[in-house]
Structures are given as structure tokens and as C-alpha cells.
TrEMBL record:
Residue ranges occupied by any 3-octaprenyl-4-hydroxybenzoate carboxy-lyase-like Rift-related domain in the UniProt entry: 133-335
Species this chain originates from: Solidesulfovibrio magneticus (strain ATCC 700980 / DSM 13731 / RS-1) (Desulfovibrio magneticus)
UniProt xrefs under SUPFAM superfamilies: FMN-binding split barrel, UbiD C-terminal domain-like
Top-level lineage group: Bacteria
GO MF terms, alphabetically ordered: 4-hydroxy-3-polyprenylbenzoate decarboxylase activity
An example Gene Ontology biological process: ubiquinone biosynthetic process
Ranges of residues in domain 3-octaprenyl-4-hydroxybenzoate carboxy-lyase-like C-terminal: 351-471
Transmembrane segments: none
The protein, known as: 3-octaprenyl-4-hydroxybenzoate carboxy-lyase
Pfam families for the chain: UbiD, UbiD_C
GO cellular component, one term: cytosol
Length: 587
């Protein structure tokens, strides 16, 4: 234990100040009912297209400083609520990781995030224990009778919002991080899972079995040994710890040490008051308790990130034994439910970086350039896109596809490999590659026995299948059918001079070669731009017999291209003219 050990990283308060200075925070001082309106208010920021994971735009986080509830209580001055402040947009997520986003597009940003996670896994920094009296999260300690009595007491005294008003059956901590401990190794795991309120001193926890998470695996050991399980819920974690929760981290590492690796400095930890666990000293709130592994309680419905409500099921019941907090605290909540959402951004960027690390540095598929898990509507885990270098051997393409679809139990139901000219974060471009670069008889592989995972439960069997698609080019193809980059940039200058709204391209905006082209056609195009298209008409003026080329739509092979000599004004014909392409087109 080290007295006087200073904090060297951002806690939530410092993070909010930085978001505000960067123009990434809305502070809402009007009264907002946390039971009815708070989450729907933020939801408009997502469905209103002021920020998605597809484009890097001015999406902001929300800080509510005048929270009320349907019973008429006011929490102003005691507890604020923040939503979207960890990963409300790629720019906010970059700030959480201490990355200077500098307007990077999502692909460029993902490379910086990838480097951060590699550093965290390779160079974790051990956390340092400080005394209770020095821990901000121990400024207020509630135990015993202070937790009992219902309304206004314990958990019922915190402004925990309803996440999906009209469907959810209780307020939920949607951004809480559970601390659990491995009975054999003593390693503490931190995982983000939902938590609903049941009483002023009782709540329920849902830890996914299908994803093989650390919290559930630790619970299994307590159940096997017939011991009660100590748990603690972190609310309002420092941002570089908050991003650990949804992440797949090495099981032999304490997650607080991984957070230290992300920050490059040690995290401060403090012993919990009523359970044998260590908690982050700079959190806003810690809720301690015990689980009886032999008992379960009915929990949910709750709106899930895969776009459906999860209906009532049996999950862990937590007897709360302590709430420790700052005098003025901030509850973090996360927009989840149907993507686009904050949970979608954090999982997309987290999972993508770690999967990229796995493919490049564990499987050594060196040609992998990027990985993207698609978020909007389908909630990240169902569609994975892998970007590979040009001319990657077919064996490595399929090793990447197989490795990505097997890396996490239920991630990668649809896994697609694309070339590096495809933006993996743009589903239209990915579909374009699938539509025109695949031979479905040899480019698609379907395998059984993929975990169902975080999705509506299947009613006919316990698992499902997965599909892998090689949508990389199998041979050179004609150019992308858009004006060339230089001409498009000239047109943009004219657009801006005309005072029209700022352009933020979502799809491909200029054409480029994909290998199936020749210099003579470029010269013809240049002449057309210069207004000399009549010369191109001279080039093709000699007509050919229909039967000699096999009929309409017969292609001209590259060795059979006719050339116009601008210096002599003569048309040059190849030997054997007219030549036709060996590939025919169906009538």
C-alpha cells in the first residue's frame, strides 16, 4: 500500500472536462426524468443521424445535471448521469483512449487503437494499492441499515435510468463493470454486463454464458465448491478502464493492470469494504455484494444490442452489502439496444483491434491490413470484414477467414474478406465486393457449430452455422466507374466556392484502376476530357465483320487494342486485327 500515490490518468471528471473543451459534450441542465425521458432523449442523437459508427462526425456525449424521477425526486447536486461519454462516437472513443483523433477516418483511427491494445497486452502496468482514506470512491460509505428501507435508500437513492422505457421492467446499470475473482489464480476480471435494480439492497446480474466470459467462468468455480461469490460493480470508471469491460483480454492478466498498460501508468486500487476484492480507487461509485451460486432470480426484459428485447430469464441475485461513492458522483449509462448505439461503437472498435492483433501477431497472417465488425442494426458480432493486401495468396485469405470466425465463440456468423480498396466500415462497399468479386461456387464456405452467442435464443437447436466469403478479386478487373480523383477534387473546389453545404463522402467518390485497363484507353479518356473526342472516332472508324468477332458484346483483348498515333495522325492496327477476347457474354 502506498500513501500519497497520485493519480496519473484521467478519471471520469477529468475526461468530461476534456470532452467539453473539445466540443464533444452536451451539458443538459433542464430537468430530465430518468425513468421516462433520459435515454429516449439521447436516442434521438443516434437515430437522428447526428452521429453513427459509419462516419466520424460531431456526435457528442450527454451530461445531465438536473435528473429527476417519476416520483418527483431531484438528484441535482448529488448525482449526475452521463450517457455516450465513453464511445458515443469514434472521436469520443479516441478521447477515452487518450488518442488524438485529429479527424482521422475510421480506418486510420482503428490502426491507432490497434497499437494501443497491443501495448496494453504486451506491457501491462501493475496497479498500486492506496489507503481507503485517500480513495475518492470512499468519500461516502453506506452499509447496514443505510441500504435498507426502500425508496430513497441504498440503490433506490441513485438516479439509475430506465434504458428502454416502455419495455424494460426496472432501471438498469448498462455501463457498470463487474469485478469477480478467479478462485484458483486470484486474478480479478472486469466485465461489462447489465445489472437491474430489485430493492434498495438487492440487484440482479446477467453474465453471458455463450461468450465464455470470465465472470461466468469464475461463478462456475464458486458453485462447484459451494462457496458464496464476492462481487463488486464499478459505476463511473475512469475511461481507459471503462473500455476494458467489453473487451476480450488475456485471462492471466488482472484487468486493472491492462488498463494501466493502455494508460502507460499504474492505476490506483483500494480494498473493498465488505468483500475480498480490489476496486479502482478513482471510480465514481462501487457497489459491493455477494452471490449465492445455488440460487437465481427472475430478471429482464431488457433491450439488447442485437435489436430485440431479451425476455425474462433466471440470472444471478446480488445481496448488496455496501455502496461507496464520491460525495458528488456521476453515473455512467450506455445507449445500447438497436444499433447504432454507444455499445456498438465500443465493441466494434475494441473487438476489431483485438481481432486484428490476433490475425497479424498470433496467426501471422501478415497480409491483413484491417478488421471491422459492422455495427448499425446488427450489433457488431454478426458481420466481420477483413481487409487484405492485393495479391494475398488464397491460402492466407482462407486462413484469415477461418481464424477470424473462430477467434470468439459467437463473433463472425458472417465473415467476409475484401481487398484493400474496399472500406470495411461501409456495408454498401462490402456488398459491392460480394456482388461482383465472388464466384459463389468457390468463394463461399458454410460450416456448422457456431455459438449462438449474444442474440435471440434459437428455438430449434443450441447452435447455428457460419458463412465465410472470399470477396477479394480473383483476377484483374476494370476500373471503378467514377470520375478520376483529380477531376473530382476540382469539382469539390467549385462546390465550395458556390457556398453549398460541406461535403462528407460516405461512399466511394472517385474512380481508380483495378488492373484490367490499358494505356491507350487512358489516352482516349484524356482526349475526351480535353474535348478532342473526334480523334477517338477516327481511331474506331474501320468497321469489322460481325461474324469475325462472334457477334455483339464481344470484348477487345488488351493485345488487340487499336492505337491512335497523335504525332502522325495515323491509326495503328495490331497483327491479326480484329482480335476478340476469349471470354464470351451470355446472350
Amino acid at each position: 500500500m502506498q500513501k500519497g500515490f497520485p493519480r496519473q490518468y484521467d478519471d471520469l471528471n477529468a475526461h468530461l472536462e476534456k470532452l467539453d473543451k473539445a466540443g464533444l459534450l452536451w451539458t443538459i441542465s433542464d430537468p430530465i426524468n430518468k425513468d421516462r425521458h433520459l435515454h429516449p432523449f439521447v436516442r434521438w442523437g443516434y437515430v437522428g443521424d447526428v452521429g453513427t459508427v459509419v462516419a466520424n462526425n460531431p456526435k457528442r456525449a450527454f451530461l445531465f445535471t438536473n435528473v429527476t424521477d417519476s416520483k418527483g425526486h431531484s438528484y441535482q447536486g448529488d448525482c449526475d448521469v452521463m450517457v455516450g461519454g465513453t464511445a458515443g462516437s469514434p472521436a469520443i472513443y479516441a478521447a477515452s483512449l487518450g488518442i488524438d483523433d485529429a479527424g482521422d477516418d475510421l480506418t486510420a483511427l482503428s490502426q491507432k487503437i490497434f497499437a494501443k491494445w497491443v501495448q496494453a497486452f504486451e506491457k501491462p502496468v501493475p496497479a498500486v494499492e492506496i489507503p481507503s482514506e485517500a480513495a475518492p470512491v470512499h468519500e461516502v460509505v453506506l452499509t447496514g441499515d443505510a441500504l435498507k428501507g426502500g425508496e430513497g435508500k441504498g440503490l433506490a437513492g441513485l438516479p439509475v435510468p430506465n434504458n428502454t422505457p416502455g419495455w424494460d421492467t426496472a432501471p438498469y446499470f448498462s455501463a457498470g463493470l463487474w469485478i469477480t475473482k478467479d478462485l484458483d489464480t486470484g486474478v480479478e476480471n472486469i466485465s461489462q454486463n447489465r445489472c437491474s435494480l430489485k430493492a434498495s439492497d438487492r440487484m440482479t446480474a446477467m453474465w453471458l454464458i455463450q461468450t465464455n466470459g470470465g465472470a461466468h467462468n469464475n461463478w462456475v468455480k464458486y458453485k462447484e465448491r459451494g462457496e458464496k461469490m464476492p462481487v463488486a460493480l464499478i459505476v463511473g470508471a475512469p475511461p481507459m478502464l471503462q473500455v476494458i469491460g467489453p473487451q476480450k483480454t488475456p485471462e492471466h492478466l488482472n484487468d486493472l493492470d491492462v488498463a494501466g498498460g493502455l494508460a502507460g501508468v499504474p492505476y490506483r486500487k483500494v480494498a473493498c469494504k465488505t468483500v475480498p476484492l480490489m476496486a479502482p480507487a478513482d471510480a465514481q461509485i462501487i457497489i459491493e455484494g455477494w452471490i449465492d451460486p445455488t440460487k437465481l432470480e427472475m430478471e429482464a426484459p431488457f433491450g439488447e444490442s442485437y435489436g430485440n428485447m431479451s425476455v425474462e430469464e433466471y440470472n444471478h441475485s446480488v445481496e448488496v452489502t455496501a455502496i461507496t461513492r464520491r460525495k458528488k458522483a456521476t453515473i455512467t449509462s450506455m445507449i445500447s439496444q438497436m444499433a447504432p448505439s454507444e455499445s456498438g461503437v465500443i465493441k466494434q472498435l475494441n473487438y476489431s483491434a483485438v481481432m486484428l492483433n490476433h490475425l497479424k501477431n498470433t496467426l501471422y497472417v501478415r497480409q491483413v491490413k484491417d478488421v471491422a465488425l459492422h455495427g448499425p442494426m446488427i450489433g457488431v458480432s454478426r458481420l466481420t470484414v477483413i481487409v487484405l493486401e492485393k495479391n494475398t495468396p488464397r491460402t492466407e485469405v482462407w486462413r484469415a477467414l477461418t481464424g477470424a470466425s473462430a477467434f470468439m465463440r459467437s463473433v463472425g456468423k458472417i465473415t467476409v474478406a475484401v481487398d484493400e480498396d474496399i472500406n470495411p466500415n461501409n456495408v454498401e462497399e462490402v456488398l459491392w465486393a460480394i456482388a461482383y468479386r465472388t464466384d459463389l461456387m468457390k468463394s463461399v464456405k458454410i460450416e456448422d457449430y457456431q455459438a449462438n452467442g449474444h442474440a435471440p435464443k434459437l428455438r430449434d437447436r443450441e447452435w447455428e452455422a457460419k458463412i465465410m466469403i472470399d470477396a477479394t478479386m480473383h483476377y484483374p478487373m476494370p476500373p471503378v466507374a467514377l470520375p478520376t480523383k483529380d477531376i473530382m477534387e476540382e469539382a469539390r473546389e467549385l462546390w465550395e466556392k458556390a457556398g453549398l453545404p460541406k461535403i462528407a463522402p460516405r461512399w466511394k467518390w472517385y474512380g481508380y484502376s483495378l488492373g484490367d485497363w490499358c494505356e491507350e484507353w487512358t489516352k482516349c479518356a484524356d482526349r475526351a476530357v480535353a474535348g478532342d473526342w473526334l480523334l477517338n472516332g477516327i481511331r474506331t472508324a474501320v468497321l469489322v465483320d460481325t461474324d469475325a468477332v462472334g457477334g455483339p458484346t464481344a470484348g477487345v483483348p488488351r493485345k488487340g487494342v487499336v492505337r491512335y498515333n497523335e504525332q502522325t495522325g495515323q491509326v495503328e492496327y495490331p497483327e491479326g486485327f480484329p482480335l476478340r477476347d476469349k471470354f464470351n457474354t451470355d446472350e
